Predict the structure.
Amino acid sequence: MQVSSVNSSLSPVELAAWRGLLRTHAALVRDLDAELHAGHDLSLHEYEVLLTLAGAPEGRMRMSELAAAVVLSQSGLTRLVDRLGRDGFVARVRCEGDRRGLNAEVTDAGRRRYLEARTTHLAGVRRRFLDHLDESELGTLATFWERVVPGATAE
């Protein structure tokens, strides 16, 4: 049975756009992760959890909401929060009014580590990504992300 060529291959421009997205994302994540490890002994995912919790009301979020916010599976987030807990950066606390629910809460040490790492992370994002695009291009890119995944650019 022959598969339609429309469904079996990408045009050169489609392939370039797709590969470009994948390769750029992988390179940026790899390099930003390496900078955070070298400078602050944090992974990029750990930094994102601390950033998200530091910005949450009372520095606390339900584990399920935190997993969605940092784009990790429940089990992946559980392992990551366990590591951050062993380092004293995050504590797990029961949800008020829900005996089964758990919150992750950033500790004072976690806030300090986040603030220490923030300058390194933002400089890396600027140097490796933002400085390569002008304001108009960044706006266009944000518009494209929203078209592909509505809500992708929302906080």
